[in-house]
Amino acid sequence: MVSPVTESQVTADVSAPNPEKLERIRHTCAHVLAMAVQTLFPGTKVTIGPTTDNGFYYDFDRAEPFTPDDLKTLETQMRRIIKAKLPVVREVVSREAIAAEIAQLDENYKAEILAGIPEGETLTRYTIGDVALSGIGGFKLTADKSKKAQAQQFWWDLCAGPHVESTGDIPADAFALESVAGAYWRGDENNPQLQRIYGTAWENAEQLKAYLHQKEEAKRRDHRKIGKELQLFSIQEEAGGGLVFWHPKGATVRRLIEEYWRQTHLAGGYELLYTPHVANLNLWKTSGHNDFYRENMFDVMEVEEQAYQLKPMNCPFHVLTYKSDLRSYRDLPCRWAELGTVYRYERSGVLHGLMRVRGFTQDDAHIFCLPEQLAAEILGVLNLTEQTMSDFGFNNYEVNLSTRPEKSVGADDIWELATQALIQALNDKGWSYVIDEGGGAFYGPKIDLKIQDAIGRMWQCSTIQVDFNLPERFQLEYIAPDGSRQRPIMVHRAIFGSLERFFGILIENYAGDFPLWLAPVQVRLLPIGDEQRQYAQAIAQQLQQRGYRAAVDASGDRLNKQIRNAELEKIPVAIIVGKQEVTDQTLSVRTRQQGDIGTLTLADLQARLDVAIAAKSQI
RNA sequence: GCCGAUGUAGCUCAGGGGUAGAGCAUUCGAUUCGUAAUCGAACGGUCAGCGGUUCAAAUCCGCUCAUCGGCUCCA
Prior knowledge:
Elements: H1 19-40, E1 45-46, E2 55-61, H2 68-83, E3 88-93, H3 95-105, H4 108-116, E4 123-128, H5 131-134, E5 155-158, E6 175-184, E7 193-201, H6 205-220, H7 223-229, E8 233-235, E9 244-246, H8 248-267, E10 271-272, E11 278-280, H9 281-287, H10 289-292, E12 301-303, E13 306-310, H11 315-323, E14 334-343, E15 359-369, H12 374-391, E16 397-402, H13 412-429, E17 434-436, E18 446-452, E19 458-467, H14 469-473, E20 478-479, E21 485-486, E22 489-498, H15 499-510, E23 523-527, H16 533-545, E24 550-552, H17 559-568, E25 573-577, H18 579-584, E26 587-591, E27 595-600, H19 602-615
Parallel strand pairs: 10-14, 16-17, 23-24, 23-25
Antiparallel strand pairs: 1-2, 2-7, 3-4, 4-5, 6-7, 8-9, 11-13, 12-13, 14-15, 15-22, 16-18, 18-19, 19-22, 20-21, 25-26, 26-27
Helix pairs in contact: 1-2, 3-4, 7-15, 12-13
The structure holds one RNA strand.
């Protein structure tokens, strides 16, 4: 659900851009791009050119691929058009007239767009340049790349607008073409593939600069880069794409996340499960995954003439656990959690670091409950989610409530009950939310939570889904007070989403500077000379025995080099020990956040470490 | 999977039909050093893999794999 590719989600922190004006600039920018393309590359067909969060794109149909050099040339041409201050004119047109013009130009995509606009709607076209100069309507474009050609330019597009009044209103120093990519006509991979040129555009150079800075910042924090630098994890060609190796330091962070998870879940009334990684294919037939989820599943494997399936989800296993015994209403709610590792087939082109992989571990849980328990259970999940996210440093959320989609299972009244339960829980929690009408799963409504990271990007992690489908398919039951057999409601929820993705988000959020409680190495001791090595070892050992993650720099490098390495490895606390410290039995402490903080005793240091660890903050 | 780009030492990268290069890292030697890089030497590569063109391929061509930017999809 979260697009792992975050560039488009980056919202630059700029001095209050005017959204309406930006929209116009970007929209016109897209037109100017299309005009430039058709001038320099005659025969290219236009399709659509909408605005995006940071700019615009335009999709073109052209046999030859656009090269990075082409983008530069196009940018130059766009600047010419901007410099020429050509008027942008809105004009209401009749369907017949515009259809004829489009047909004459053989712009079949435009014709398709026109055909899709309902009868009776006002049709407008936007013209760049002076019609009078061209003499006739339509594309009067020249392939002449000389600068003299610009005065004759005239271009139009069927478009609802709005636009700026003149190409001169686009700030020539506040836009840039960014990349070219493949995109399908109307987003359907069965349709022809078009070439999409992405651009960014702003009101002024400062805003553009802020956006580029934000982009740099995102690049600096890229978890793939940091993961390699800090030796946290790897993904290896030899093993296959999308399969994650957690290296000792990354594994330490994961262990700490898991320990936190275990502790909070046990405290929250959950019980923990372990279930297998494969199961007989029949289980997946019963659950419906074999029909509805086949394309995301690995191929079946044959074991003694039986078909087995590597698991893409944990739910059926939890359901079977429920079903293994007769349940009373007194047993409910059952809250069962598992760090369940699942494998999903993902097309090779979509894999992305830790954010999109083929094998990952969900912090999965399923709650089986009575209808009247539903709202309270949801609220419990919201509380646990809030506590967890705030402990990991995320305090801003965006909440979505997704309701019944067209294609769905289950009776109306039970959908209504479940949706109301979600709403009630959100209200009880006091969270405002956005309703995503029809965005629910086919088996029930859901709440999704997006968290905001340190540079303003939103990431979806948590999801809470009510499920009517699996209890039905597996005929789950409990014995009601009146002795009748009733169907429990099932809630599926994950807080981190997947440990891999959450780890990736953590790395990017902290830019590798983990808070003390999560830092793989909390303290490194730097002996100035060989004579202090023993003292450093002794201190490290004492720290380790008291539960801190401490180690001695064994390199024998000079102090400056050791400090540099500790900094590059983002180790929160470096302790320098020289002759003076050994003599005085003290420690010279340097934190990554504050630099040299002076001389402390071991007890003082411990006290400071404990404060930061308890606060889950950096030291 | 599709479109485009990329793949050279552990890492970051240069080179470009005819002995494979640098910095960092590693190892060894010297240095024993006080808050972000001590000096020197050595080691290290079937130039992603397979096939083709050529007297000769890391270099040109084709296929495969992986990665990157997107599309579609998604925890």
